[in-house]
Design goal:
The chain is an alpha+beta fold and about 190 residues long. The chain has two domains: about 80 residues, DNA-directed RNA polymerase, insert domain (RNA Polymerase Alpha Subunit, Chain A, domain 2, Beta Complex); about 70 residues, Alpha-Beta Plaits (2-Layer Sandwich), CATH 3.30.70. The chain is built from three helices and nine strands, in the order E-E-E-E-E-E-H-E-E-H-E-H. The strands form four sheets. A three-stranded antiparallel sheet has the order 3-1-5, with no helix packed on it. A two-stranded antiparallel ribbon has the order 2-4. It has a two-stranded antiparallel ribbon with strand order 6-9. The protein is elongated, with a radius of gyration of 27 Å. About 10% of the residues are buried. It binds zinc ion.
């Protein structure tokens, strides 16, 4: 649970909302994240191979690190999603094409192919369309139309590696669900 919501300490920090990781190393050699010893076996560094410091002969390092949960809105260190965005699912319709080729030459994504019957976009490639409408603008006979489905989205996200992208999306959905339930319970009081 995030520390700010801890029932035991009220956000000050206690064993219920914190995990201690200790490290004791002696040079020469590089100290890695895997050298941290956690007080809770379930809580481990996301990657064991992160170099922390290089120790020379005779140098020692002893430290205690405290891990606790928080929200990405408070600090980027709790933000597991590093890139995220969405667009509506593009819908491209082509009718009465005279196969002049202008649209294919103009498309910055290169997704318009040519067949004898005219321009074509595969159902897979249409997802790459950025809805720029350059193809529409260069078509003299208005044969190509770029629109989008209002009820369908292409969602793109990247995790920092501490969660899989799937877990990140599922956890985010859980948070949204929790907020909606909280709102409902507040509205129920009126
Ligand atoms: Zn606590």
């Amino acid at each position: 649970m995030p520390q700010a919501e801890c029932d035991v300490c009220g956000g000050e920090g206690c064993p219920a909302c914190e995990v201690s990781l200790t490290l004791s190393a002696e040079g020469p050699g590089t100290v890695y994240s895997r050298d941290l010893i956690s007080s809770d076996p379930k809580i481990q560094p996301a990657d064991p191979n992160i170099p922390i410091v290089e120790l020379k002969k005779g140098q020692k390092l002893v430290l205690e690190a405290i891990a606790h949960m928080g929200y990405g809105r408070d600090s980027v260190k709790w933000q597991a999603g590093v890139a995220c965005g969405y667009k509506n699912v593009p819908v491209i319709t082509i009718e009465n094409c005279d196969a002049c080729g202008h649209c294919a030459a103009e498309c910055p994504k290169g997704i318009i192919r040519f067949e004898e019957s005219g321009a074509k976009v595969s159902s897979e490639d249409v997802l790459k369309c950025s809805l720029c409408k350059l193809c529409e603008q260069v078509c003299d006979i208005h044969a190509i139309n770029v629109g989008f489905d209002e009820n369908a989205f292409v969602f793109t996200m990247e995790s920092d590696g501490s969660y899989t992208a799937k877990d990140l999306a599922l956890n985010a959905a859980d948070v949204i669900k929790g907020k909606a339930e909280e709102l409902l319970s507040i509205l129920d009081q009126f």
